Amino acid sequence: MSWVAWRQQRPSTVAAAILLAVAGSILVASGWQVTAVARDSGLAACVAAGGDCQVLVEAFTNRYGAMLESVSALGALLPVALGLLVGGPLLAREFEQGTHRLAWTQSVTRGRWLAARLAMAAGVLVAVAGVAAVLLTWWWGRFDQLHISTRAALEEGGLVPVASALLAFSIALAAGAVTRRVVPALATGLVVVLVVALGLNLAAQSLVAPRPLPMTSLAATPSPRASLDDQLLASGYRDRSGRDLSAHALDRRCPGTGGQAVGRCLAANGIQRVDRDQAASRAWQRALAQSALYLVVAALFVALAWWRTLRPD
Amino acid sequence: MTAVLQATGLGKRYRRTWALRDCSVAVPEGRVVALVGPNGAGKTTLLHLATGLLAPSAGEIRVFGAPPANQPEVLARIGFLAQDKPLYHNFTVGEMLRFGARLNPGWDRAVADHWRARFDLPPDRRVGHLSGGQRTQLAVALALAKRPRLLLLDEPMAELDPLVRHDLTRLLMEAVAAGGLTVVFSSHVLAELATVCDYLVLLAVGRVQLAGDTDELLAGHKLLVGPRRDPPTAGPHQIVAASHTERQTTLLVRTSGPVHDPTWAVHDVGLEQLVLAYMRNPQAIAGPRPTLTAVPYDTKEVSA
Q1: How distant is the Cα of B90 from the closest Cα of chain A, in angstroms?
Q2: pTM of the model
Q3: A155 and A304 in one domain?
Q4: Whether residue A68 is found in the same domain as residue A195
Q5: Residue A218 and residue A216: Cα distance in Å, rounded?
Q6: A11 vs B90: CB contact, 8 Å cut-off?
Q7: Angle at which helices A160-179 and A280-310 pack, to 10 degrees?
Q8: Does one domain contain both A158 and A192?
Q9: What span, in angstroms and rounded, lies between the C-alpha atoms of A297 and B1?
Q10: Total structural domains in chain A?
Q11: Alpha-carbon distance B207 to B221, whole Å?
Q12: If 0-12 CB within 10 Å is exposed, 13-18 middle and 19+ buried, where does residue A108 land?
């Protein structure tokens, strides 16, 4: 049975590997680019020294912000795509081509057949998604180092990609068991995954709410920030009296889009950039809660697919 | 006599429509059974129930004495050829046979190799690149190499050329004659099976219309030709079909004893003629005759 399970897994494994190779090379290339730009612009050295790097950060985000957003979207969707790719056709293609009638009339019960196929598929997926997780953790690490992203390597990397790949897998699997067609299984799978993942992310956020560290002013030298591993939740500006300034108010006081002149204006008005962080350990807990929720819901969808498949029509 | 496959009050309903209803039939061991009926009569449904692919909505079905669903012991004894001959199109011929070998403990490699060679199927050719007929041949080889004791073939002949058809039927006859194999063919074309089957099950719309040993069925039906009688009457005999010309009436009857009425000229009927007469008249149902007593299969043998 294991040879059969592997042989049947082969096409989607190849497809997943190709997808991973393409997305992985985009991640690696953009990660290297980020590192090189941060080094050449002096941002990396500035952050490492703990100084006020605001002008450099702004220059960086002005230039690479859009890329960062699109690549981070790719990073979030990659594990989902892998899961759909492996899970969607597993049952749906059998039903679509009628080959379940062949598979289930050999000398092996449906339960054994399905168990072997699920074990093989889940093993392949964990391996592929594991590689994706390593890449994503590394990629988010580039930004964490520079302290310019609002998300942490822990949240988009670490365990989360593997868990979200398994969630997408189980949902597409169940969709295939119900719709019995590959394309509808993938389409409904995608929609359901996005909705379920959004709900679970909100649930994880309320379970492990961000507990911000005290606001720290970045004008002070050296930076009072406890650790560069802490996760940036938000950043903003405060005037001399300690009031938060909206972007609009800031623009009225010191018009311009950055650069030396604005920097001098801010300093003259006593306006400081402040960051709100949460401790790295808090982000860890949240990532764990999110992964755990994903896995529990994934198990429920696998159970649904199992029940739907083993029940004779 | 032992019933390999026994259905009792078997019914299958898809939502509101019954695909098979109140079906009671016992297939004796060592027979070649023609399962005949028009399209949509429930032939495929009956075969799927026999393989456990479908679960009955009513009644029960036993194969080798046990309900077939999820019974590896029963599954191992059934060779099944589904109507659309499903195979994995991205597998090669060799991989497809390896699939059979891995999933069936009783796999007979010699049988598989023999039929692969006989059908001239290149082992490295992808299934998706085979012709429809070749796919049927490969599916047949898979079913045979499993060394089943009950071979269920859903429309097996449709895509085979006459030569292969002939070979295959001869092989099946030999296997049945050697003992230990029962074959159930389904078809809506009786001509395919008339020469080989010795047992007939005729399904009308979801019901068993006629079932029994072909010789007994033929002996039990007569064609009566005589002066015109409209409406037709045939004494104690059940009229299956009637046709009239201006002066003459022809009846196909299921006899209940010798025909004594001297006004009738009595002729024998052929199997195709008999089946067509029943098919044209789906209301005619030949109730069970005590020709076959179904002995429950020894369940101990299955669990062993």
Answers
A1: 9
A2: 0.83
A3: yes
A4: yes
A5: 6
A6: yes
A7: 20
A8: yes
A9: 54
A10: 2
A11: 20
A12: buried
DSSP 8-class letter at A151: S
Whether residues A101 and B86 touch (CB distance < 8 A) is answered with: yes
Expressed as residue numbers, the domain containing A126 is 2-210+281-310
Do A30 and A159 lie in one domain? The reply is: yes
Q: In the predicted model, what is the mean pLDDT of chain B? A: 84
Considering only A63-77, A245-259, B21-35, B126-140, which range has the smallest mean pLDDT?
A245-259
Q: Are residues A87 and A228 in the same domain?
A: no
Q: Inform me whether the pLDDT recorded for B249 exceeds 80.
A: yes
A236 and A132 together in one domain: no
In this structure, how many other beta carbons lie within 10 angstroms of the beta carbon of residue A78?
26
**Do residues A229 and A145 both lie within one domain?**
no
- Asked if B254 is an interface residue toward chain A (Cβ–Cβ < 8 A), one would say no
| Interface contact B76, partner A, CB < 8 A | yes
Q: Whole-angstrom distance between the N-terminal and C-terminal Cα of chain A?
A: 24
**A16 and A91 assigned to the same domain:** yes
Question: Token digits for B90?
Answer: 């991205």
Interface confidence (ipTM) of the complex? 0.84
Chain B: residue whose CA lies nearest to A110: B70
Q: Residue A135: which residues within 8 A CB-CB, separation 6 or more?
A: A23, A24, A27, A28
The series of mean pLDDT values per 10 residues for chain A, 313 residues long, is 92 94 91 85 76 74 79 86 95 94 92 95 95 88 70 70 95 95 95 94 82 59 49 72 77 70 75 71 81 95 94 79
- Chain A residue numbers with beta carbons less than 8 Å from the beta carbon of B76 are 107
Say if CB B152 and CB B181 are below 8 A apart. Answer: no
